[in-house]
Design a protein that fits this description.
- Helix 1 packs across helix 6 and helix 6 runs parallel beside helix 7.
- This protein has three domains: about 35 residues, no CATH class; about 100 residues, Roll (Ubiquitin-like (UB roll)); about 90 residues, Cytidine Deaminase, domain 2.
- The chain has about 260 residues and is α+β, with helices and mostly antiparallel strands.
- About 20% of the residues lie in helices and about 30% in strands.
- The chain has seven helices and 13 strands.
Length: about 260
Amino acid sequence: MERSEGESERRVDGDSARVVIRKVDDAGSRVVDDRVAVEDPLEIRLGYSRGSNRVHRSVSITMRTPGHDEELAVGFLYTEGIITGRDCVETVARQDGDAGNVVIVELKESIGVDLQRLERHFYTTSSCGVCGKASLEALKVTPLHTIPPDEPRVEAEVVHGFPAVLRDRQSVFASTGGLHASALLDPSGGVIAVREDVGRHNAVDKLVGSQLMAGRVPLSEMLLFVSGRTSFEILQKALAAGLPWVGGIGAPSSLRWRWPTPSD
């Protein structure tokens, strides 16, 4: 058992921080060094043209683990249906002077923005990816890609090995015990990319953002495996990226939705 005594952090090292704690176990009570996962706010701002003016608007403040922030910003905008692809984006950059906690995504001049969608300002915690939605209608994101009904096929023994494969690549979790992860794999179980974050939805957005910026979306031949439960927001983000297969260590939730298809 570990209990914090309120001592200040010694040093933040990117995605983890050194802290001093009082550790209580069978050997007694003692003060020791420990590592915890970093949780810090990130503001995502969108730059776009409105008539002859250039507008910059805050779209989201999300609690996340620092690292791959540009991927997180682009992945969030894509899985929330605010942008429709990599070709919408002109630049992605941190804002100077804000200690890296603001990322600005500049859209190309020709790209229009759904202003009604932007009227909903998102605040997402590390535990919930839909908490900031203003209405039930805000939960629906129309998929851009058709999901193949029967592919890919994955052997059962390959699926059974996914938890170990993911754990082996969770470097920050190994030192802190406090992060979720998402992995992109091929049907044979080969690992394409892994991202970690205190928020399971952020880990997926980072993964989708990395593939979107590399021009690899839709991910119609890939698999998504997550460290937590396969909840509504995880499946929504997977659907947006064209992922036909989702697995997780935790159980799914009951929420279902009648998803529109691109032809609707």
